[in-house]
Amino acid sequence: MKLLASGFLITLNFLYFRYMKKLLFTSFIFLFCLSLSAQKEVSTDEPLDYEELIEGEKVKFESRISSGDYSHLGLATMPGQQMMALTVSSALSRRKMTYDEVKGSPYLMEKPVHGIIVKNNGDEIVKVPLKVDLYSQTIVATNLDGKDISLNPKEYKSIILPYNNQILTLEKVNIDEPDIFYAVLYQDPEILFFREDYATFKDATSNGISDTEASFTTRKNYYIKHRRDKHPTKVKLKDKYILKSLPKRKADSILRHIKKNKLKLQSEEDFIKAFIATKSKYQKS
């Protein structure tokens, strides 16, 4: 009888061990799959909202710019800066003309705005009064003495400032012009879409019949750069030129988006929205 009871207990323990082993194995498989699911990049066709992204950038900018005080830092003692000349050469008058004597403006914005300067080491200088001189292609800061100074582009990685109710990030993204800051409009792991803002000077003329004033004219160029390429491609702001410059998979995706929604892309904003709408949104669950 004792032998029978002992055998029964052994069998029971064996079955219990098998059951627990199976339960633990099943739990391990479940947790492993759950972990893979959590790490997996989940793609969805749901488009990102352009306006929400713009507002998000504003919130981040305000948070960053409120974290410091420019008055405690100053730019006058930083190396590589020169006082702004603010003049252009006039062949007609055979002299240097100040910017104030020329019709139009060479600046991206008329008045200085408080922005953020990011140094090469990642340190940020905030609340700096900034302007962008599109004729000399320089970033102009107002120092603590109230004077305009030209920043040495080799010392800085990027400039962040408010412009046209958005937050504009200027970066040195063109290897062909390593010291020029360009407006980064859109970027993802595959492409970079950026804009060159510049100003041209037209001298005054006098032919005895009519005279014209010396003037500045602001202009724009657009570029697409593949992440795998060193050099960007200059593009016109039209469907066929933009699509031709993109990787085939991205171009096909945007073309489907255009046809499905019966769109006609004509402006800078239209193309940015199309890039955003066709970008896979990756998130970790």
How would you describe this protein?
It is a single chain. The protein is of the alpha+beta class and 285 residues long. It has five helices and 15 strands. It has helices at 2-39, 50-65, 239-245, 248-261, 268-277; strands at 82-83, 87-90, 95-98, 113-119, 124-133, 138-142, 148-150, 156-163, 166-171, 182-187, 191-202, 205-206, 211-212, 215-226, 233-235. It has an eleven-stranded antiparallel beta sheet. It has a two-stranded antiparallel ribbon with strand order 2-3. Strands 12-13 form a two-stranded antiparallel ribbon. A hairpin with a 5-residue loop joins strand 6 (138-142) and strand 7 (148-150). The longest helix is centred in the N-terminal third of the chain and has 38 residues, at 2-39. Residues 28-46, 72-83 and 281-285 have low confidence and may be disordered.
* Broad structural category: alpha+beta
Terminal Cα separation, in Å? 58 Å
Tally of individual helices = 5
Helix content: 25-40%
H-E order:
HHEEEEEEEEEEEEEEEHHH
Largest sheet: 11 strands, antiparallel
What strand line-up does the widest sheet have?
1-7-6-5-4-8-9-10-11-14-15
Number of strands: 15
| Whole-number mean pLDDT | 78
Radius of gyration: 30 Å
Contiguous uncertain segments of 5+ residues:
28-46, 72-83, 281-285
Task: Name the overall outline.
Answer: globular
Which range does the strand content fall in? 25-35%
